[in-house]
Write a structure and sequence with these properties.
cell projection, 2 domains, alpha/beta, about 40% helix, Rossmann fold, single chain, Nicotinamide/nicotinic acid mononucleotide adenylyltransferase 2, 6 strands, about 300 residues
Length: about 300
């Protein structure tokens, strides 16, 4: 398959990121590597979307800290960025709503065909282009060959974004469009998909009665699709067979097979918080040093519960 006929993919990961760990970044890297090996996909970007403060999880530190830690964790990446939209809403957003938001915004600014385009979304889209002129300006930027510069600009400017109020929505849109405009999109892009990236623990949660709305699961798995990075010893096939929604949409679920068998336990934010609270030197196995430095400077998690 040529690059123009492959499905171009953006990986979206939702979660607390409380704090973000080396494992979270590892999931992105392994997913991209595996999807490229299939010969069917080209991963052009990754998005980390931390959950809203009102999620109510015990020990969840304010989003301004979680956003900063995420930005520090990906500051050297030229394809993964942190998106503050979910944190900046009035209240907690479902995973389905976050996916729909990014789908709607991506479709508007790229003009590519995205998954689930026939289903109207009720989620607000911050800073959408309001006329064709803005969209055309964006599309002309696709010829630019300065992706690393754009990524660095996003990283530097987004660090101070939390301090901006009245123009925050506009800046989010401008930076988002500038970042997307440097994706490696071909002149003819037949399909662009946003796939939910998750661990097998989220896949297991789909099987818990009443935890997810059936309609949301249908949209997430059926319309968008998910990429699952298994944790050690988890039988993803058994999990998928346990849920009628997962069984029905098996073709939309990609399970990352990793021959190297890297320990996905380093994804655990819980273990990293416990290590911090106990002064365990093994915290360096879980967290990037820049994240550790920020945590210590801000005195996070030291006396936190959960």
């Amino acid at each position: 398959m040529t690059d123009n006929t492959k499905t171009h993919v953006i990986l979206l990961s939702c979660g607390s990121f409380n704090p973000i760990t080396k494992g979270h970044i590892h999931m992105f890297e392994k997913a991209r590597e595996y999807l490229h090996k299939t010969g069917k996909f080209i991963v052009i970007g990754g998005i980390i979307s931390p959950v809203h403060d009102s999620y109510g999880k015990p020990g969840l530190v304010p989003s301004r800290h979680r956003l900063t830690m995420c930005q520090l964790a990906v500051q050297s990446s030229d394809w993964i960025r942190v998106d503050p939209w979910e944190c900046y809403q009035d209240t907690w957003q479902t995973t389905c709503s976050v996916l729909e938001h990014h789908r709607d915004l991506m479709k508007r600014v790229t003009g590519c065909i995205l998954s689930n385009v026939n289903t109207p979304s009720t989620t607000p889209v911050i800073g959408q282009p309001q006329n064709e002129t803005q969209t055309a300006i964006y599309q002309n930027h696709n010829t630019m060959n300065n992706k690393p510069t754009a990524i660095k600009l996003w990283g530097k400017m987004s660090e101070s974004m939390g301090k901006i109020c009245c123009v925050r929505s506009y800046l989010i849109h401008v930076l988002f469009v500038y970042w997307v405009s440097n994706f490696c999109l071909p002149i003819y892009c037949p399909e662009l998909r946003i796939l939910l990236l998750c661990g097998s623990d989220l896949l297991e949660s789909f099987c818990i009665p009443g935890l997810w709305k059936d309609s949301d699961m249908e949209v997430i798995v059926g319309d968008f699709g998910i990429v699952v990075v298994p944790r050690d010893g988890v039988d993803t096939e058994r999990i998928m067979n346990h849920s009628s929604v997962l069984r029905k949409n098996k073709d939309n679920i990609t399970v990352v097979k990793d021959d190297a068998n890297h320990p996905m336990s380093i994804v655990s934010s819980t273990k990293s918080r416990l290590a911090l609270q106990h002064g365990d030197g093994h915290v360096v196995d879980y967290l990037n040093q820049t994240v550790i430095d920020y945590i210590l400077q801000s005195q996070l998690y030291i006396n936190a519960s959960g």
